[in-house]
Design a protein that fits this description.
The chain has seven helices and six strands. The protein is an alpha+beta fold. Helix 1 (2-20) runs antiparallel to helix 2 (25-52), helix 4 (63-78) runs parallel beside helix 5 (99-118) and helix 5 packs antiparallel against helix 6. The longest helix has 28 residues, at 25-52. The protein starts with a helix and ends with a helix. One of its GO terms (molecular function) is phosphorelay sensor kinase activity.
Length: 216
Amino acid sequence: MHDETLQELVAVQIVLSTVAGGGEPAAMKEAINQARGLVANQITSLRHLIVEMRPFALDQLGLAPALETLCRRTGETFGLEAELRVGAEWSRLGDELSPEAQAHIYRIVQEAVNNAVKHAQASRLLVELHSDDHAIKVAVRDNGRGMAHQPSTPVGRSALGTVVSTGTGLSAMRERGHLLDGHLTVDSTPGEGTRVSLLIPRHAKRRSRPKDSASA
């Protein structure tokens, strides 16, 4: 997997270097299309790798108990208050969330928690799981130092071209939110903490497997 990724990225570099060196417009267009194809191959491969990296706790406990364990261990390890609140309606989701979707949600929460502990200097964390007839809602709030110039930054499908420069791991959370057809936002104010919110529409058929992996 890693060898293939490296080889194709080197190939992309060579192709783009050729384009940068000039040449006929037709040849440049062909080289660009070739580079785009190589990048698309690796995006697909990396997405499959992300899905395969499923947290062990999910298989043993389920999403909500796994996040409860994450909060408890975070509190014990770093000496802060970490709480999970689960809405009563969450239990009625049944098996609507596929194992892949649960893994993405877990990793998003885990990354937000890590950011709060390592970078925000928070003393309190709150993780929330809710759902209604229209959407699944996940939020992570902290009382840390917050981030400047980060008011309600969208990190969903509509903002894939936006580079979020503040914080750590936001691009990974953005990609996971995209894979869930979700909308991820980061609201932060200096001195007032940060809130990471994920909104996932319930119209998507989350039990179906990706076509690429199903045909593999």
